[in-house]
Amino acid sequence: MLRKIFRRWTGPEEVGKVKLIVGLGNPGKQYEHTRHNIGFEVIDELSREFSIPLDQSKFKGLYGIGFYKGEKILLLKPLTYMNLSGESIRAAVDYYQIDLEDLVVIYDDLDLPVGKIRLRQKGSPGGHNGIKSTVAHLGTQQFNRIRIGIDRPEKGMSVPDYVLGRFRQDELMTQAEAVKKSAGACEAWLEKPFLEVMNEYNQ
């Protein structure tokens, strides 16, 4: 049983049960459509699919909240820059008193080929600074995540330059399919446990 992490909040708004879907990335035009921002692209896809506009600013992020198939959904893009993503996630978790089993974090992964996605329920950050920050602020490695492959840079290219660069023309279709597949996994999670979705999508 995943432990609940929250600071109890009382006020005029009824909190209720919320599922939180977070995509990691960096804010700003210069980072749009870069490899490191593929988590943001999944949130944009879900915003369109669920008809939940990302029109609110809070939790050091941009977010939208609405209902989809009977579930109350919060879509969140942290605007802290990647290295501080956990600050935004923790703030949303605290405010809405979210069980960690009702959280999924979506991010890029150098250890998977472009287009490949992998779902996990726990694990180390694996060198990803956004996940390092998330683990540090939640105090646990046990939370659902969707990793989207971006592959590794060619010899001679630094990792920072690579992840902050854009996909090659020949990768764009595969990358777009991975975004849609990740959004589909999130949609499936609204109807069944994450473990079942993980077993289905990791095959």
From TrEMBL:
Keywords of the record: Cytoplasm, Hydrolase, RNA-binding, tRNA-binding
Q: What are the TM regions of this chain, as residue ranges?
A: none
**Top EC class of this enzyme:** hydrolase
The entry assigns this protein to a family as follows: Belongs to the PTH family.
Q: Where is this site: Stabilizes the basic form of H active site to accept a proton?
A: 108
Leader sequence segment: none
Q: Where does tRNA bind?
A: 31, 81, 83, 129
A Pfam family this chain is assigned to:
Pept_tRNA_hydro
Q: Which reaction does it catalyse?
A: an N-acyl-L-alpha-aminoacyl-tRNA + H2O = an N-acyl-L-amino acid + a tRNA + H(+)
Record NCBIfam families: pth (TIGR00447)
Instruction: Provide the species name.
Output: Neobacillus ginsengisoli
Q: Does the keyword Transmembrane helix apply?
A: no
InterPro entries assigned to the protein according to its UniProt record, in alphabetical order: Pept_tRNA_hydro, Pept_tRNA_hydro_CS, Pept_tRNA_hydro_sf
Localization per record? Cytoplasm
Residues at the site labelled Discriminates between blocked and unblocked aminoacyl-tRNA = 26
Q: Which domain of life is it from?
A: Bacteria
PANTHER family reported in the protein's UniProt record: PEPTIDYL-TRNA HYDROLASE
- Active site annotated at which positions? 36
The protein depicted here goes by the name Peptidyl-tRNA hydrolase
The molecular function terms of the Gene Ontology recorded here are: peptidyl-tRNA hydrolase activity
Subunit description: Monomer.
* Protein's job: Catalyzes the release of premature peptidyl moieties from peptidyl-tRNA molecules trapped in stalled 50S ribosomal subunits, and thus maintains levels of free tRNAs and 50S ribosomes. Hydrolyzes ribosome-free peptidyl-tRNAs (with 1 or more amino acids incorporated), which drop off the ribosome during protein synthesis, or as a result of ribosome stalling.
Enzyme Commission code? 3.1.1.29
Q: Gene encoding this chain? A: pth
